[in-house]
Amino acid sequence: MVARCHCGKVTIELPHAPSEVTECNCSLCRKTGFRGIYYSPDEVRVSGAVDPYVRADLDEACLTNWHCPTCGCATHWTGIGVHAAGRMGVNARLLDPAVVDGLPVKKVDGASW
Ligand SMILES: [Zn+2]
């Protein structure tokens, strides 16, 4: 299963299709439209150049948010420091809609964190 940004320069190979999609209401996810699916970083392969964005408005940012420098699509996030192990988020919007349509949607109240 491969997720692709709009221009196709960034591809993300996933070990399996998602079984649910997470929608977060934090200010960043609201503005980028990110919909999260989660994997272990060691089972995902990101190809192509990506640029980082780390929120400066938080007391302590725990994620690096990556995007394609060419088309601007939010592609994935990875954890910083102790948050790096075990989990990363991939933007489900980079997948074919047929893969995610109809999946359960989990609402996360990131705006309150
Ligand atoms: Zn792109």
UniProtKB/TrEMBL annotation:
InterPro entries: CENP-V-like (IPR052355), CENP-V/GFA (IPR006913), Mss4-like_sf (IPR011057)
PROSITE patterns according to UniProt: CENP_V_GFA (PS51891)
UniProt KW Metal-binding keyword: yes
Sorted UniProt keywords: Metal-binding, Zinc
Coiled coil regions in record: none
A matching Pfam family: GFA
Residue stretches making up the CENP-V/GFA domain: 1-113
GO molecular function term, any single one: carbon-sulfur lyase activity
PANTHER family: CENP-V_GFA DOMAIN-CONTAINING PROTEIN (PTHR28620:SF1), CENTROMERE PROTEIN V (PTHR28620)
Family per similarity comment: Belongs to the Gfa family.
Protein name: GFA family protein
